[in-house]
Amino acid sequence: MKAMLKSGLIFLAATIFLTSCASTTLIQSNPSGAQVYIDSQNKGVTPYNYSDTKIVGSSTAITLKKEGHQDLNVMLIRNERADVGAIIGGFLVLVPFLWTMQYNPTHNYELIPGSNQNTEEANGTTQNSNSTNELVKLKNLLDQGAITTDDFTILKVKILNSEYEYSNSVADQLIKLKGLLDSNLLTNEEYNSQKNKLVNGK
């Protein structure tokens, strides 16, 4: 009887695990019909259903482009709402805690009329957009107590001095670490050790 109960629990946990990993959100724009670029790759047009199996705190860079409108760069972070199924599964099997947060069902974005500027100015705009996105993510981490004021200042100076690697975003790595800490997959000591290495570039 106990063996059957154990097998049933394992089957239930596996089922919850498989259904809880993926999260889907509908990306919409006003006006609709904007080209959707995900991590610099053209995936389709709005309205667009986006889905992934990334872990808690993972981020995805999205750009919306439409003729006659300015490009819109946004960051989608998988920490918007709790997944009850994954939380229940996490009590049975530890791994599902990595997927306890999902995206909101929809994301609506307003496109601003206008045209993109020449290549040089556009590159500068992209750089400014990248720095703004990183500072916002770092400020959120600071507000959550995931980094200290000194950590924030060190990284902000690197961004302002163009010494920050956006392709290997420290903010994104810190968000993933925070997700592992929140899921009890890292101790506070392990988290702080890894965090300090990222912040100080060691």
Automatic annotation (TrEMBL):
Domain PEGA: 25-73
Signal peptide: 1-22
Family annotation (PROSITE patterns): PROKAR_LIPOPROTEIN
Origin: domain of life: Bacteria
Domain SHOCT: 134-156, 172-198
Keyword terms of this UniProt record: Signal
Protein name: Putative oligomerization/nucleic acid binding protein
